[in-house]
Each structure stands twice: as structure tokens, then as C-alpha cells.
Specification:
Largest sheet: 8 strands, mixed
Number of helices: 11
CATH class of the domain at 2-71 and 98-179 and 268-345: Alpha Beta
Oligomer: single chain
Distance between the termini: 33 Å
Bound molecules: 8-demethyl-8-dimethylamino-flavin-adenine-dinucleotide, P-hydroxybenzoic acid
Number of strands: 19
Structural class: alpha+beta
Shape: globular
Helix content: 25-40%
CATH topology of the domain at 2-71 and 98-179 and 268-345: FAD/NAD(P)-binding domain
Length: 391
């Protein structure tokens, strides 16, 4: 079998890339190691930038998103018992949207399959051959049988734990990595959100985030020690911690309900450079991850493949390969901007395990500097709502 672009991974990056290529008449196939129900129910991101929503709409995959997403004009930062709203719509004329990643993935799978783009589930890529030749191949396992696909190009969209990065020679990449001394315990709750906007809470006991999935489902996160076992967190302990970290006296109350999921996620910043070796391109989490405090991961995955699809289009329509050479550098500018923002939001809002009282007071002072200044709020808003996507 031969396709123009072999895509590894049916996450947001792989599915959007397949769609963008299809719209330009470029053939692709997606190999996904997990089953369709698994990827359609995997709870991860929730916050989409305007540019991501626009891209989903422009590619004809936004029908349900437009009906069900929750637009947000601002966010609230809570610290030292005070509430501070950052009104992004007023400051920079842009907003953000809540729509579960697994819902976006469901929509993207349906549209791709309806258009005839082949997606092979439970097909695990194991290795690539000839990525620096004219005709690379993907070796994969499907139904217990090993198979190969020949492609012109390979797009490694297989996330942080995928195999695509291994397609680079060891000396051909440099990794930039930083682990954080804490993780997040994420829960899904059958209860209306505690507030109609996201609440980012700085507290001496640790960070807490109140977000949502719908008017009846809340998504909440607590800073916990790294490698924490979610089984150490009884429902009572979880609610007690949210009450303490939200605090009282500012008109907000924790909206409790049945907890339907508990999971601990690690916090890490990682970038590999460059994102291309020969005919293999990395996009999304396979090339970089950010701590979720800035809500950038899925948005970056979509912006990477938007750039990559333009490079494939230039090549297949006009024989122009120059955008392949520019791909890595073009993406990395945005990626490092998001890395800085995610690190900054994380450092600003979390309590380090070895924090001195000095550090906590310094963080509060920094939060006051940001929220007390239009320039400070604007800087936060521009980064949080995301720079416009390259068109
Ligand atoms: P994905 O989504 O990990 O998809 C990769 C796919 O590849 C498959 N795969 C393979 N397939 C074939 N062969 C192999 N050898 C394979 N190995 C792996 C996997 O099964 C999977 O289906 O990567 P992609 O497409 O790059 O998308 C990245 C996003 O998923 C990620 O950045 C976001 O979830 C990050 N993130 C957030 N991003 C946002 O933009 N806004 C948010 O609000 C936000 N919140 C979050 C988040 C991530 C979180 N966790 C769980 C880390 C909140 C959390 C808690
Ligand atoms: C989410 O809704 O899951 C979410 C929102 C904002 C973040 C992280 C996660 O910063």
C-alpha cells in the first residue's frame, strides 16, 4: 500500500492534519494504537483558543462544537482571599472556549471517516524505515500481524509516549526537559460549575483550578505531590482541600457532586529540536509538552499541523519544498512562547514543596502586579487566549 502522507496517531494533531490534507486532495492514512472507543472517551484538554476553534470550523468539523461549546470572555485569579478578573474580550477582543478534547476528537474522527480518510484503530506503529530516503515506510502491528505502508512522508502525531521521536538518529535531535516537583489530581464531577468562568487559585496549601465540561459537569484540579496515587484521595479529602484552597468571604462556593473520575497527571515541560528529520515530521505532543496551567497543549498541536499542512500543500500543488525546511523553525517560535507562558503561569500559581513564606509573599506580590496593571493583564490575556493562528 502507498499513501502520500502516513500519519501516526489519531489525537487532535493527526486528525486535523488528515482533514487539512484531504481538503487539498492529498491522500493520507492514520494509524492509531488504541481502539476508537478509547480515544473517544479519553478525558484530557478542555480549553480551546479562538484560533483553534476557527480552524475546527473552517475545516467543517465544528457543527457540534458551535452548538455545545462554552465561550468564556474572561478568567478569574484568586489569591490572598481576593478575586481578580481578567477580561480578555475587553482587553484584546478575543475569548476562549470550553469543549472537551474527547468531544473534538469524536467530531474529527466522524468527519474524516465520512470523507473516506482511512483510520486504522488498534494499529500500532512500531518502527520507520528509510526516513532519509525517497520512500519511507511505517512498520505497524494490526490484529497480531505485522504490516508495512509506504509513504512519501511520515507525520509523527503519536503524542509524548509515541515512537516517532525514535525515528530520528540519536545525534539528530536535542531535548529540552524540565520536570516539576508536583502533579495535578484531576476529577470529573456531576455538578454544575462553581462559577461561570475558570477559577485559578493560588494558595499556600497548593494550586487549585475550577473548570468545567458543560453546564452540569465540572472538571477540577488540585496540586498534589508528583507520582501521587489517586487512591490516597478519598472524596472527603478532595472536597476538604477544594474548600480550603478556594477560601471564603468572596462570594464563591465549591459546587460538590458525585466524582466520576480521579486521575493524577505529571507536570512537565519538554521540547525536542528540530521537528523534522528527512521525510519524518513531528507535530503536537510527540515534539513538545507543557504543564497544563496555561492550557496550551492541544492548541499547539493544532497550530503545528496547520503549518505542516501548508508545507504539504505547497509541495504537492506547486512542487515547492521550501516550507518543509521552514517547518521546524516556524513552529518552534510559537512553541517556545507557549513554553514560557506555561512555565510562568505554573510558577506564579503553584506552591513549591520547599517554598519559604518569602516565596509565597513574593508570588502574591507578582499576582498583584499583574492583576493591578492593564499592561500586566493584557500580557496575560494575549498569551492565554493565544496568538492568532498562521493563515
Ligand atoms: P495525543 O492526543 O496524545 O494523541 C496521540 C495519539 O497517538 C496514539 N499513539 C500511537 N498510535 C499508533 N502507533 C503508536 N506507536 C502510537 N503511540 C501513541 C495515542 O493513542 C494517541 O491517540 O497527542 P496530540 O494529537 O499531539 O494532542 C496533544 C493533546 O492531547 C495535549 O497536548 C492536551 O491534552 C494537553 N492539555 C491541554 N491542552 C490544551 O490546549 N488545553 C487544555 O485545557 C489542556 N488541558 C491537557 C489538559 C492535558 C492534560 N493531561 C491529561 C496531560 C489537561 C490535562 C489534565
Ligand atoms: C480543562 O478544562 O481541563 C483545563 C482548563 C484550563 C487549564 C487546564 C485544563 O489551564
Amino acid at each position: 500500500m502507498h499513501v502520500q502522507v502516513g500519519i501516526v496517531g489519531a489525537g487532535p494533531a493527526g486528525l486535523m492534519l488528515a482533514r487539512l490534507l484531504h481538503l487539498q486532495g492529498i491522500s493520507s492514512i492514520i494509524l492509531e494504537s488504541r481502539s476508537r472507543p478509547y480515544v473517544e472517551t479519553r478525558v484530557r484538554a478542555g480549553l480551546l483558543e479562538q484560533g483553534s476553534v476557527d480552524l475546527i470550523n473552517e475545516t467543517g468539523m465544528g457543527d457540534r462544537l458551535r452548538r455545545e461549546c462554552l465561550p468564556h470572555d474572561g478568567i478569574e485569579l484568586l489569591f490572598n482571599g481576593e478575586r481578580h478578573r481578567v477580561n480578555m474580550q475587553e482587553l484584546i477582543g478575543r475569548r476562549v472556549y470550553i469543549y472537551g478534547q474527547q468531544e473534538a476528537v469524536k467530531d474529527m474522527i466522524a468527519v474524516n471517516l465520512a470523507a473516506g480518510v482511512p483510520i486504522h484503530f488498534e494499529a500500532e506503529a512500531v518502527a520507520f524505515e528509510g526516513v532519509d530516503s525517497e520512500r519511507p515506510t511505517i512498520r505497524y502491528r494490526h490484529g497480531g500481524v505485522e504490516k508495512t505502508i509506504a509513504c512519501d512522508y511520515i507525520a509523527g502525531c503519536d503524542g509524548f509516549h509515541g515512537v516517532s521521536r525514535n525515528g530520528f538518529p540519536a545525534s539528530g535531535r536535542k531535548d529540552y526537559d524540565r520536570a516539576y516537583p508536583f502533579g495535578w489530581l484531576g476529577i470529573l464531577v456531576d455538578a454544575p460549575p462553581s462559577h461561570d468562568e475558570l477559577l485559578y487559585c493560588h494558595h499556600e496549601r497548593g494550586f487549585a483550578l475550577f473548570t468545567m465540561r458543560s453546564p452540569t459537569v465540572s472538571r477540577l484540579y488540585l496540586q498534589v505531590p508528583p507520582d501521587e496515587d489517586e487512591n490516597n484521595w478519598s472524596d472527603d479529602r478532595i472536597w476538604s482541600e477544594f474548600h480550603q484552597r478556594l477560601g471564603t468571604g468572596h462570594g464563591l462556593k465549591v459546587s460538590e457532586g458525585r466524582i466520576t473520575q480521579k486521575v493524577v497527571v505529571e507536570m512537565r515541560s519538554y521540547v525536542t529540536e528540530p521537528m523534522r528529520f528527512g521525510r519524518l515530521f513531528l507535530a503536537g505532543d510527540s515534539a513538545h509538552i507543557v504543564p497544563p496551567t496555561g492550557a496550551k497543549g492541544m492548541n499547539l498541536a493544532l497550530s503545528d499541523v496547520n503549518v505542516l499542512a501548508k508545507a504539504f500543500t505547497a509541495f504537492y500543488k506547486r512542487g515547492d519544498a521550501s516550507l518543509f525546511d521552514a517547518y521546524s523553525e516556524k513552529c518552534l517560535r510559537r512553541i517556545w512562547g507557549a513554553q514560557h507562558f506555561s512555565w510562568w503561569m505554573t510558577s506564579l500559581l503553584h506552591t513549591m514543596p520547599d517554598a519559604l513564606s518569602f516565596d509565597v509573599r513574593r508570588q502574591i506580590a507578582e499576582l498583584r502586579t499583574i492583576t493591578g496593571s492593564i499592561a500586566g493583564q493584557t500580557l496575560l490575556a494575549e498569551n492565554y487566549a493565544g496568538l492568532p493562528m498562521e493563515m
